[in-house]
Each structure stands twice: as C-alpha cells, then as structure tokens.
C-alpha cells in the first residue's frame, strides 16, 4: 500500500465524497417527495393512477440501475427530437443531471412500495379512532396514517439509503468522479492494483457507519413507543408464619 500516494491525492477523494453524497441525498430527497403521493395512490387502489404507478415501480425495480442510467445518458441522445429540445443543452447532455434523474426515478420506485406497505399496515385501531372522531380521508392521511407510516418505515428506509449510496457507484461509469471514479482514476494513472479501490472501500465504510448511527438515533427517538418495555418483576410478599 502506497500510503504517501493516497495522501497526496486525498483531495480528489474528498471531491469524490462530495460528489457521491451530493448525488445520493439529492436523489433521496427528490425521490422521497415524488414517492409520497404515489404511495398514497397505490395504497388507496386509485382506479386511474394505481396501474400506472404499479407499472412504473415494476419497471424501475425490475431493471438494474446501471441499465437505467445508460438508457438516460446514452439512449436519449439518439433521438433528434431530444437533442433539439430545450432540455438537451442544460440537462440531458450533462452526466451529472442524467445520473441524478436515473437515481431519483430508481429510489422513488423503491420508496413508493416501501411507503405503500407501511400505509397499508397502519393499525386498524388508529384508523377507526380517527374515523370515530370525525376526521375526513385527507385529514386521516395527513394527521394519522402518514406520520405513523413514516415512523414505522424508518428501519426499512435506512436500508434504501445505504443501497442508494452503494448504487451511486454507477456514476463513475458515465465520466463522473465520485468516490469509486477517483479510485479508478488513481489506479489507472499510477498503474496500481489496490490503493484506489481500498481507499474507496474505506470511505464508503465510514459513510455507511455514519448513516447507520444517524438512523439508530432516529429509531430510538421516534420508535420508542413501539419498543416492548420490560415488565417489573412482581414482588412476592411472604405470609406471616402462624404463631404456635
């Protein structure tokens, strides 16, 4: 391991960390916003939107993220109508924007199904109590069902965040210098075998460790009411011995 060479190029790895986190969390933010109304439509079995959203989630969950990114970055440019549109020059001709679009659509599909399951699994007692107190459907969804679903979806969503972080390595295949891209650049420039990849793996490990700690704190804060409390051991009172 040439540690001195890694240290001399560590500023590039820091830029790769910024690129990776920027793409990952922007995609998670935008994808989460998109997923909320789609999850509501899926959970309510909307006659019009449910089959459309099901088809969308099926396609993006059933195909690899690498293929989706290639289709957007390389495929859309094959159409003249796309190249002549106003979206081409500022957005679709940029590798960063294409990666963000692919990541956002991918995580939105997974988050939609994740939230749909959490909405459907809302305890019936909470819903019945909201109906009994006069809440309308929108009021129940906004004040009762969605907050409860968000809390219960936290453990599963932490896995989606980590999977999205790992999937962001796809960005290195379309010329973006994320963490893995910098590692590949270092190995290619100096004819190395391990230094770049090991450094990239350690950086991903540190980021994932930080993410898991943050979500563990969030779970302790917002899922405290779902944890089973240990019942105190009942004290046994000894009966007084009879006087002989």
Automatic annotation (TrEMBL):
A Pfam family per the record: BPD_transp_1
Keyword match Transmembrane helix: yes
Record has Transmembrane as a keyword: yes
Location within or outside the cell: Cell inner membrane; Cell membrane
Gene3D superfamilies named in the record: MetI-like
Chief subcellular location: membrane
InterPro entries: AA_ABC_transptr_permease_3TM (IPR010065), ArtM/GltK/GlnP/TcyL/YhdX-like (IPR043429), MetI-like (IPR000515), MetI-like_sf (IPR035906)
Membrane topology: Multi-pass membrane protein
Superkingdom field: Bacteria
Molecular function GO labels: transmembrane transporter activity
UniProt record, GO biological process: amino acid transport
Keywords: Cell inner membrane, Cell membrane, Membrane, Transmembrane, Transmembrane helix, Transport
Family of this protein: Belongs to the binding-protein-dependent transport system permease family. HisMQ subfamily.
Name used for this protein in its record: Amino acid ABC transporter permease
Organism (species): Pararhodobacter oceanensis
